[in-house]
């Protein structure tokens, strides 16, 4: 497992994908900072949209990193060199998750810099925000975002192992990120008697990004307590990981 992890780190670090992710995050956060009339406390608490931007970047990078093995016809070479397919799959996933964690740390640093540049001393980190203070709200938002990264990365690996089509996986991921929550709310609104069951649907999991920051408000939308939505995200992570690996293990076809 250790050797597989080293190989995947080496492979990932020598691609341009990590750099593109960093550049994209900076540009998108900058866009959030300058695209509105002013920077509010809410924008700072959300890390200039870091949660949304990082999940978009991660669905793209996770899918691309796995798809390249098929596109470059190297997946069979990996299988030939190692009989432990679980090590290969797990190592790839860990590399991407750690990269997601690095992006969250970077987004925190960028938020601190952007706050100083665009807001200055207008809002102190101890300023009250939604029954908390600004710094705590930011940390909770980033924590919720990282939990959702676990969901979205394992989903991407599952989908790319299953359909082996990178554009399709990215499209599905973006649809879930942008439309999933709204679609989930519509379904639960139309079938209120089924809410105890429907609230556990995977489209509802994205609320974890904001629910850790403002639990009282978003728990009424997700119909899940903060503990429940964290556990549900982790449960889906495990489910996607298991089924993704089972499909990956049986892989014999190559992307054309």
What does this 3D model show about the protein?
By secondary structure, the protein is mainly alpha-helical. It contains twelve helices and two strands, in the order ααααααββαααααα. The protein has helices spanning 2-13, 17-34, 41-45, 50-71, 75-81, 85-118, 134-163, 166-190, 195-198, 208-211, 215-222, 226-249, and strands at residues 128-129, 132-133. The protein has a two-stranded antiparallel sheet. A hairpin with a 2-residue loop joins strand 1 and strand 2 (132-133). The longest helix has 34 residues, at 85-118.
Secondary-structure topology with pairs:
Blueprint: H1 2-13, H2 17-34, H3 41-45, H4 50-71, H5 75-81, H6 85-118, E1 128-129, E2 132-133, H7 134-163, H8 166-190, H9 195-198, H10 208-211, H11 215-222, H12 226-249
Antiparallel strand pairs: 1-2
Beta content comes to under 5%
Rounded to an integer in angstroms, the radius of gyration calculated over CA atoms is 19 Å
pLDDT averaged over residues: 87
What is the percent of helical residues?
A: over 70%
Uncertain ranges: 252-256
Extended strand count: 2
**How many separate helices?**
12
Overall form: globular
Main beta-sheet annotation: 2 strands, antiparallel
Distance between the termini: 29 Å
Q: What's the order of the H and E elements?
A: HHHHHHEEHHHHHH
Question: How are strands sequenced across the largest beta sheet?
Answer: 1-2
The secondary-structure class comes to mainly alpha
């Amino acid at each position: 497992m250790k050797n597989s992890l080293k190989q995947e780190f080496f492979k990932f670090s020598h691609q341009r994908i990590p750099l593109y992710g960093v550049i994209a995050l900076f540009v998108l956060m900058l866009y959030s900072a300058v695209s509105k009339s002013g920077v509010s406390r809410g924008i700072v608490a959300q890390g200039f949209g870091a949660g949304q931007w990082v999940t978009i970047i991660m669905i793209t990078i996770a899918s691309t990193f796995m798809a390249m093995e098929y596109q470059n016809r190297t997946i069979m070479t990996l299988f030939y060199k190692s009989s432990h397919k679980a090590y290969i799959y797990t190592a790839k996933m860990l590399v991407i998750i750690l990269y997601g964690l690095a992006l969250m740390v970077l987004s925190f640093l960028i938020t601190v810099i952007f706050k100083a540049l665009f807001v200055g001393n207008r809002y102190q980190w101890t300023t009250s925000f939604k029954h908390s203070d600004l710094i705590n709200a930011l940390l909770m938002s980033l924590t919720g975002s990282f939990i959702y990264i676990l969901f979205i990365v394992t989903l991407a690996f599952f989908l790319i192992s299953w359909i082996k089509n990178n554009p399709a996986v990215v499209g599905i991921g973006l649809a879930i990120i942008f439309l999933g929550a709204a679609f989930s709310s519509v379904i639960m609104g139309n079938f209120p008697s089924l809410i105890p069951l429907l609230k556990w649907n995977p489209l509802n999991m994205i609320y974890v990004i904001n629910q850790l920051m403002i639990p009282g408000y978003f728990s009424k939308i997700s119909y899940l307590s903060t503990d429940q939505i964290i556990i549900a995200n982790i449960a889906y992570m495990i489910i996607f990981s298991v089924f993704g690996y089972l499909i990956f293990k049986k892989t014999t076809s190559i992307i054309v």
